[in-house]
Amino acid sequence: MQVKIVSTSDVHGYVRADDFRRPLLNDSLGLTKAATAIKQIETTSAADDIILKIENGDFIQGSPLTNYIEKVAPDQTGIYRKLANTIGYDVRIIGNHEFNYGRDYLEKVLGDDQTILNANIIDTITGEPFIGRPYAIFERQGVKIGVIGLTTKYIAHWEHPSHIQNLAFLDPVELAAKYISELRDQVDIIVLAYHGGFAEDLVTGAPLERLTSENQGYQLLQLPGVDALVTGHQHRKIATVAHNVATTQPGYRGDNIGVISLELDGKQQIIKRDARLEPTGVYPEMDSVAQVIAPLQTAVDAWLDKPVGHVGDNMQISQHFLARLQSHPFVELVNRVQMAATGTHIANTALFNDEVRGLQNAVTLRDIMTNYIYPNTLVVEALTGQDIWDALNQNGRYFVKNAAGELAINEKFIEPKVQHYNYDIWSGVEYTFDFSRPFGDYVTTVTIDGQPIDLTATYEVTMNNYRAGGAGNFNMFASAKIVREVQIETSELIGDYIMQHPAIQIDQPKNITAVGYEHIKQTLLTD
Fold first, then answer.
1. What is the rounded distance in angstroms from the CA atom of residue 333 to the CA atom of residue 330?
2. Average per-residue pLDDT in the chain?
3. How is residue 523 annotated by DSSP?
4. What CA–CA distance (Å, rounded) separates 416 from 200?
5. CA-based angle 107:111:113, to the nearest 5?
6. Cα(217)–Cα(222) distance, integer angstroms
């Protein structure tokens, strides 16, 4: 007999095999394809095998579809339950991005869902999990399986306080240990479902990133009594057995499902552990899931294709490395939008990933929402000149120079997780990177309006709410430095700005100078 724990994570509202971009399209993803892959596991398993299905968080935010539901069709939130029920998830976990639309919205969408497991997000007034229950016990074929639901506690560092009012994000490792002790004598198998990932190498424990409490998967692996660990959040593709615990992390947008297999003997003892990922792109879409979403998807497509305005012929991005090194008219547009909305003269933003292709001259809402993919709002912080200098040096860490003098991307921004979004491009300041200097100390000049920056003076800088909390190792940014905020999503501000400026023409920015390298690594010049 085998117990198979099948999981999706970080679907982010990508239900159909459609990433919403036009004319480019990635169709090797989607919940409809993941559903078929899950069904294949069910139909090819032995009659006495036990299948447990887990949705591991970040389900209701992250795509144009989820934005449409929240903004335009709030009466359609029940679609998330219909989708989950159609697939037949036994367990659902709360992701960090579930809070992006606020606590009230989350309670509306998930509040009475009996499959929600949540051990460590507590209502400070009641002292109980604010939705869901800490764990569930499933008894099948005479085998008792305990599943504990956990979420990264780092949400409070990112989310706007109004979205998490009266909530405490407790340590998932401590709560897991507590409930493992409670469950151990009641069940045969213990599974942790954690919307979080790994900050350390799964085998050696060597740090892979700056150690915070964001990703505590390695610590969960060390807890006595754990048989399986389902993870997510980082969008990594992981399937292994480490420290005698089978663990998975199934990517992003339903492009993989995780499959953990625990083989049992006649005494219901685990005699073999295995973990693998099943890519979903080769599977057809499941008709029953597609039918649930079809009318709403049609409405979303019509909404996305509404014309917004024109921005000129130079805002398409084909060479992302160069755009990050030298800035780009599209980046300058986003920064101008941010500055106009907040009344500042300095701003920063990122090219979040290499799927950002910029804008054609005639812009639709689809173009905006598939280029600015996050529901960020804007924050203005009062920063010293030294803060700005330090932030630019932190950005410089995105680049490394090899022995041949080639300039390339620092592998820490690629592995174990792609993090282009943690490199910001600034407007309103002129700065120079000299890559002949020591790593982390590339910045040689910073000027504002032609004058050297005053390291002791204070400047107002606009950034997104994610960065404003210091995320991405920007320790010079902090909530204590916030002077004002604009609680309108940036994608909406971009659309409004384009409509208000019908003849936008932005030249290639020239505020960034890069010297001290021989040439750019050629493989980075094309996608």
1. 5
2. 95
3. G
4. 10
5. 150
6. 9
Structure tokens at 276: 């693998």
Whether residue 401 has pLDDT greater than 80:
yes
Q: Which residues, at least 6 apart from 115, have a Cβ–Cβ distance to it below 8 Å?
A: 84, 89, 90, 91, 92
What pLDDT score was predicted for residue 115?
98
Q: What is the CA radius of gyration of the chain?
A: 24
Q: Return the half-sphere exposure (C-beta side, CA atoms, 13 A cut-off) of residue 119.
A: 25
Rounded (5°) CA angle 379-431-497: 40
Whole-angstrom distance, CA of residue 371 vs CA of residue 491: 9
User: Distances in Å between the alpha carbon of 515 and those of 280, 297, 324, 366, 422?
Assistant: 44, 48, 14, 37, 22
Q: How far apart are CA 217 and CA 496, in angstroms?
A: 41
Tokens of 430: 């002129």
pTM above 0.85, yes or no: yes
The separation between the first and the last C-alpha atoms of the chain, rounded to the nearest angstrom, is: 46
> Between the CA of residue 262 and those of 138, 201, 206, 245, 514, what are the distances in Å?
15, 23, 27, 10, 53
Percent of the chain with pLDDT over 70: 99
| CA atoms of 498 and 311, how far apart (whole Å) | 7
Predicted pLDDT of residue 525:
47
CB proximity list for 75: less than 8 A, separation 6 or greater: none
